[in-house]
Write a structure and sequence with these properties.
With 412 residues, the protein is of the alpha/beta class. Helices cover 33% and strands 22% of the residues. It binds nicotinamide-adenine-dinucleotide (NAD).
Length: 412
């Protein structure tokens, strides 16, 4: 019989409870949480109750957890904010837990390198949650590239197009709105840097970037707009960012609500939005991260890639177009179709990858499946995102930010 992998969750917020916790509730024959570390009492106890974790295995801080326990499970899932990564990862390595950690690995290049260096001496499974590599659409593209039918990659055009309300929630009002923690290109787009490295399969050499915060600024606030949307804003009928339009829809992303804490109903949500950070006027926040950025990357052997992050779009979609010596591959993640063409013989193919449903187009479940299988069997080949493969994506993101702010090309 296959073993149930026992786990500890560190950080029972949106990702921790809603994605990694939900996995064990959906797949009790594969994974079980036996301890939780979370400073917020309500979140800690909610998670513990959902997973049947006794009071003795609920902790407020990772330091206390590591000091008070020996190795109590097979694996640890780290879903804290990135500010809390380094100590938690080092503690987990020290205790010998298999590790799944959220991206990005750290808030600075120094932290990232410390983690990757520490991981070199670690023999367990160590996965970074770059789940895009596991989305079946990208797996199809990777196998088309590897088939050799399309020749060699010359260049890739890739973009991450955020819907206007996703941009506002996460990067204007929300948790990732200020580069005192992480720049946008790291917080959001280390996924994109990672997928470029994965598809191209070569190392990056040089990076340049431009971008700025253009729109979400006080000077663009409607006349008379108060600090909070619900404080009688005169513009709420016309403003697309009104909290009433964003947070009370059938298709409002539950991840947005989970980032506000444990919210039981719409009445509670309404009360929270009167004064929490997500209820603020989008033109009157403490945000400073860009709302648009372009990055150019040169890889080994002269392969190039251009990346664009744009925060003003009707809906979320990543688009990837790969130009190769004998063909072209095009993929719109939201449309869910891979379109592949070869020049010789002339051919056109449209592929509908299977399983692109659920959070992050199925990537979250598949990466957890891969992690659990790797821990169960000790077989590292399940893992597409081992920690050492995150070095280049993080280097590219930090270099892009350096280029953008210093106005120069950065050699890696
Ligand atoms: N892979 C992805 O696609 C993806 C998507 C969204 C967020 N993320 C990343 O996941 C991480 C968590 O994001 P989130 O949206 O869940 O945020 P969140 O704020 O909802 O969850 C973080 C949780 O960690 C807790 N926490 C804070 N300090 C802690 C500590 N020292 N020890 C234990 N817990 C602590 C917070 O109280 C909170 O409950 C971030 O690093 C974010 O960048 C990844």
């Amino acid at each position: 019989m296959n073993k149930v992998v026992t786990m500890i969750l560190v950080g029972a917020g949106n990702r921790g409870r809603g994605v990694f916790g939900q996995y064990a509730l959906d797949m009790p024959h594969r994974a079980k949480y036996v301890a939780v570390v979370e400073p917020d009492e309500k979140k800690r106890n909610t998670f513990a109750q959902e997973h049947g974790i006794p009071a003795s295995m609920r902790f407020e801080k990772p330091g206390v957890f590591f000091a008070k326990t020996d190795r109590v499970a097979d694996a640890i899932v780290i879903a804290t904010p990135e500010t809390e990564r380094l100590g938690t990862v080092l503690g987990a390595i020290d205790k010998g837990y298999h590790i799944l950690v959220e991206k990005p690995l750290g808030c600075s290049l120094d932290e990232t390198i410390k983690i990757i260096d520490a991981a070199k001496k670690f023999e367990g499974i160590f996965v970074v949650c770059h789940q895009m590599r596991h989305i079946s659409g990208y797996s199809v593209i990777k196998s088309l590239i590897d088939s050799g039918r399309f020749g060699d990659i010359i260049t890739i055009q890739h973009s991450e197009n955020l819907s206007y309300h996703h941009m506002a929630h996460s990067y204007v009002r929300g948790l990732f709105n200020n580069d005192s923690m992480t720049p946008m290109i790291l917080a959001k787009s280390c996924h994109d840097m990672d997928i470029l490295c994965y598809l191209i399969g070569k190392r990056p050499v040089r990076v340049s970037s431009f971008g700025s915060l253009t729109y979400f600024k006080e000077q663009n606030a409607p006349k008379g707009a108060p600090a909070y949307c619900l404080d009688g804003c005169p513009a709420y009928k016309d403003c697309p960012y009104s909290v009433l339009k964003i947070y009370f829809n059938e298709d409002t992303d539950p991840a947005c609500i989970r980032q506000m804490g444990i919210v039981k109903n719409k009445r509670e949500l309404f009360e929270l939005l009167r004064h929490n950070q997500f209820g603020r006027c989008v033109f009157r926040c403490d945000n400073n991260v860009v709302d648009h950025q372009v990055v150019n990357i040169e890889f080994e052997d002269g392969v190039t890639a251009s990346f664009q992050m744009a925060g003003h779009n009707y809906f979320d979609r990543r688009i990837t177009k790969i130009s190769m010596t004998n063909g072209e591959i095009y993929f719109d993640l939201t449309e869910g179709l891979v379109k592949a063409y070869t020049f010789s013989p002339l051919s056109e193919e449209i592929i509908k990858p299977q399983g692109m449903t659920g959070s992050h187009m199925g990537g979250d479940k598949i990466i957890m499946d891969a992690f659990v299988d790797a821990v169960r069997t000790g077989e590292k080949s399940y893992i597409l995102t081992p920690v050492e493969m995150s070095l280049d994506s993080h280097l590219m993101a930090f270099a892009a930010e350096q280029s953008r702010t210093q106005g120069r090309v950065i050699e890696l």
